[in-house]
């Protein structure tokens, strides 16, 4: 217990940011899943990484993460700006043309991944920062990140509570939203910016793997467990929070990277039922034969 309290004194900012994002990211993921855009989250995250790499290349963002909110402010702003721009353009493309955007999402992801490395390849510390963002590390969060994540969660919850019906209708059928007098353009802009800001901040604070995994995996698990959309809306953030909390404890006790433990745990929770079902069906067929 004393060891865990000592670790809390060292890493409490990082752990609090991870727990808050475990609530925030699945709420964004629900919208992307409803719009059948699972991989778009990874593309937005990679675009945010490219924004940070561009700042490092231009010399206006730090090449390391010293834990100072002032020193990291340009990195955070560039990540959120790049993520928001990508998300808004994607939402507008979906609403206007009905395109599923799979090819464009892949293109954005690959372009962001390659250009991020190319822009920082001549700067050892910059390239190290890009690698950190790609692989995910929860150790660079600051106290400012905790307050920002908490404020982001409050804004998202208030918006979801006040506009939940319009938001869900927009996510499931933008045409019907327009028929009922809703402004699809406004939803595209506001929600696109919201998703981009949340994803860009998550990239800045935790990295791509954690941000992408906690956006999508809790929602997929909630869809498997929840009997209705209402249940998924509650289950997804609760599953994200619970699995991240357990992952932080396991990672500390086993001396493992917490972001990878959290994502790996969610993957296992999704995979185990399918494996068990497959084994059961195989045994049933053999028994019937």
Task: Note the main attributes of this structure.
about 0% strand; ABC transporter involved in vitamin B12 uptake, BtuC; about 290 residues; mainly alpha
Question: Care to give the gist of this entry?
Answer:
The chain has 11 helices and no strands.
Walkthrough of the structure:
The protein has 289 residues and is mainly α. It has a single domain, classed as ABC transporter involved in vitamin B12 uptake, BtuC (Orthogonal Bundle). Helix content is 85%, strand content 0%. The chain has eleven helices and no strands. It has helices at residues 2-34, 40-58, 69-97, 102-120, 124-135, 143-172, 174-179, 184-206, 208-225, 229-254, 258-288.
Reported CATH architecture: Orthogonal Bundle
CATH topology description = ABC transporter involved in vitamin B12 uptake, BtuC
Distance linking N and C termini = 55 Å
The rounded Rg comes to: 20 Å
| Biggest sheet architecture | none
Give the low-confidence spans.
Answer: 65-71, 276-280
Structural class: mainly alpha
Number of strands: 0
- What is the residue-averaged pLDDT? 84
How many domains, as an integer? Answer: 1
Record the SSE blueprint.
Blueprint: H1 2-34, H2 40-58, H3 69-97, H4 102-120, H5 124-135, H6 143-172, H7 174-179, H8 184-206, H9 208-225, H10 229-254, H11 258-288
Helix pairs in contact: 1-6, 1-8, 1-9, 1-10, 2-3, 2-4, 2-5, 2-8, 2-9, 3-8, 4-5, 6-8, 8-9, 9-10, 9-11, 10-11
């Amino acid at each position: 217990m004393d060891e865990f309290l000592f670790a809390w004194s060292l890493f409490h900012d990082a752990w609090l940011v991870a727990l808050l994002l475990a609530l925030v990211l699945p709420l964004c993921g629900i919208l992307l899943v409803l719009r059948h855009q699972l991989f778009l989250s990874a593309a937005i995250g990679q675009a945010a990484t490219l924004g940070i790499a561009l700042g490092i290349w231009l010399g206006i963002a730090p090449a390391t993460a010293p834990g100072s909110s002032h020193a990291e402010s340009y990195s955070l702003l560039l990540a959120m700006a790049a993520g928001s721009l990508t998300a808004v353009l994607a939402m507008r493309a979906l609403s206007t043309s009905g395109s599923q955007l799979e090819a464009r999402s892949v293109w954005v992801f690959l372009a962001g991944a390659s250009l991020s490395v190319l822009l920082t390849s001549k700067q050892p510390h910059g390239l190290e920062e890009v690698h950190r963002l790609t692989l995910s590390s929860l150790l660079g969060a600051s106290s400012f990140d905790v307050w920002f994540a908490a404020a982001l969660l409050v804004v998202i919850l208030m918006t979801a509570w006040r506009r939940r019906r319009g938001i869900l209708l927009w996510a499931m059928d933008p045409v019907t939203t327009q028929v009922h007098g809703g402004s699809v353009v406004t939803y595209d802009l506001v929600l696109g910016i919201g998703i981009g800001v949340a994803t860009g901040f998550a990239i800045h604070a935790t990295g791509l793997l954690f941000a992408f995994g906690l956006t999508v995996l809790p929602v997929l698990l909630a869809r498997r467990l929840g009997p209705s959309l209402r249940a998924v809306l509650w289950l997804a953030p609760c599953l994200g929070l619970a699995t991240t909390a357990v992952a932080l404890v396991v990672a500390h006790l086993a001396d493992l990277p917490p972001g990878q433990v959290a994502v790996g745990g969610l993957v296992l929770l999704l995979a185990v039922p399918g494996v068990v079902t497959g084994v059961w069906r195989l045994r049933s067929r053999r028994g019937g034969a």
